[in-house]
Description:
Helix content: 10-25%
Largest sheet: 13 strands, mixed
Structural class: mainly beta
Strand content: 35-45%
Number of helices: 4
Strand order of the largest sheet: 1-8-9-10-11-12-2-3-4-5-6-7-13
Shape: elongated
Low-confidence stretches: 3-34
Radius of gyration: 18 Å
Distance between the termini: 28 Å
Mean pLDDT: 81
Amino acid sequence: MRMRTSRTAAGLAAVVLTLAGVSGCGGDDPEGPGSAIAGKEPEEVLAASLEAMQALEDVTYRGTTTVTSQAGRLRGTGELVVTADGTCQSTFRSSRRGRLVTRTVGNTVYVFADAAMMRGPLQYDADKVRSLTGRWQAAPRPSSHQCDLAELLPEEDRFAGFEDAGTGEVDGAPVRTLTGKDDDGSPMTVSIAAEGAPLLLAVETRRGGRSSFTLAEHDSGVELVAPPDGKVVSTS
């Protein structure tokens, strides 16, 4: 079973990402010649996409998202970066509260938050907020936590419940769109590339509020490293 970054890091920062940019076109045959998903059932399309995503070196998704944490429920922009070497980072930006970053490297999860983001969770303790401003909080990585290149696909045990929802485009690329439910039972829409490798180009969910993401980059050589020791404080 694949583990979700947003779930396993929830004790430090709850960041839920999703994607937009899907325009419906209709049609019965979205796949072109040579497509890896031509003629396949939705469950097979998702399985093919899972295999294609896990063969990548790195992925970057960007979109709009909702974060629910001790600071309350916030709407803003999100970015998810995952690499094949087991590192990942989620970033949330709010016009009201600033930035929240969760980065996993090796056996440690690092969390960075702007002062405005910390005030609520820290009960407006000015001294504590000041001591953590500009620093990363570090905690041991849970043993079950995996950084997954296919993070935004539904869990495999949900594949059979997805149905065709026509065709469309994401940033000009033709896609096959499927609808179903995520592992929490919330409505979910995924758009899989209908030409070339069947990558997950877009996803939209309604868990905790409507969120949407698009694939911005892949195999771009991105590297995620641990923050400098002098900028890290331990929470353990």
